[in-house]
Specification:
two-stranded parallel sheet, alpha+beta, six-stranded mixed beta sheet, 296 residues
């Protein structure tokens, strides 16, 4: 937590307010947060019984004032780059039709030690989209749209994004029913209200460790496919949007698992290659069941 709060205090943009939600923590987290609030009037601390990260964000959102025009959600594990809020805020001002703005993340371990260098940046920068019926990587000069997010979540974590409060209210805020993929589900809804402006710069250091929710890979994978299915068959999406979701779901295993299996085989990591091929097959098995259920 101290690193996260310090990264907010170090922002080149100084016109901000920070709400720290203590989600039932039993360690020194509350004491640490209160010490910061005692030194800076822009920081406020609220407490709740442990309800999970997504409900903590919803609680924090309920505490903001009516004068708030932009909002960001920063997890306690993550650390802003000093220019993050200023850069994202200026990007939103330069893109009045955008619902939000996002930059890139960098993986770190421990305090600020970079790991898996350039991996997170590459995923965020090399976004897939559709040209006709074929997938294609879009250039970094283009913004992030519904068609890009239909493939997979190219925005690693909440802290990479600055959201217009008006757009967040328009799409209904955060959805508590998707605890593992709450960010991806929100980006998809926001992208339907207006594109998400992309800035090709690292704005956040994303700390990876064994307690990261995203490390619960199987649970995350299952909920991701449940979200895909709900969108493909959603009456709230247009026929074109449902087509994009279905096409992206069909290409996703090829662009991810099949490519990873081929890379692993070339590196003679055959066990990894077999695992990726299993996920590849399981993905299409899920989609075949969707079709059977829909026809039935």
């Amino acid at each position: 937590l101290p690193s996260a709060i310090d990264s907010v205090l170090c922002q080149t943009l100084t016109d901000w307010n920070l709400i720290v939600v203590i989600d039932g923590s039993e360690d020194a987290t509350e004491e640490i947060a209160m010490s910061y609030a005692g030194r800076d009037r822009r920081i406020r601390v609220i407490k709740q019984t442990r309800r999970g990260a997504n409900l903590a964000r919803i609680r924090g959102l309920s505490e903001i004032g009516n004068e708030t025009t932009k909002i960001a959600f920063l997890d306690a594990d993550d650390v802003y780059e000093p220019h993050a809020l200023d850069l994202l805020s200026r990007t939103l001002e330069q893109n009045p039709r955008a619902s939000a703005a996002h930059g890139l993340a960098r993986y770190i371990y421990g305090h600020v030690m970079p790991i898996r260098e350039s991996e997170a940046e590459r995923v965020g920068r090399h976004r897939w989209g559709l040209r006709g019926i074929l997938p294609t990587q879009i250039p970094a000069s283009e913004h992030t749209t519904f068609a890009n997010l239909a493939f997979y979540n190219v925005i690693h974590t909440f802290g990479q994004v600055l959201i217009r409060t008006e757009a967040l209210e328009k799409v209904g805020g955060l959805d508590p029913t998707w605890p593992m993929v709450a960010d991806w589900e929100l980006w998809i809804r926001l992208s339907r209200a207006g594109y998400i402006a992309f800035v090709d710069s690292v704005v956040l250091n994303y700390r990876r460790h064994e307690n990261n929710m995203s490390n619960h890979w199987q649970l995350l994978w299952n909920e991701s496919w449940k979200l895909r299915r709900s969108l493909i068959f959603s009456s709230q999406l247009s026929s074109r949007e449902r087509y994009i979701m279905w096409t992206a779901a069909a290409y996703y295993p090829i662009l991810t698992f099949l490519r990873l299996a081929a890379d692993s085989a070339r590196q003679r990591r055959f066990a990894d290659a077999c695992t990726y091929l299993k996920h590849f097959a399981a993905s299409y098995y899920r989609m075949a069941r969707w079709v059977t259920t829909a026809r039935g």
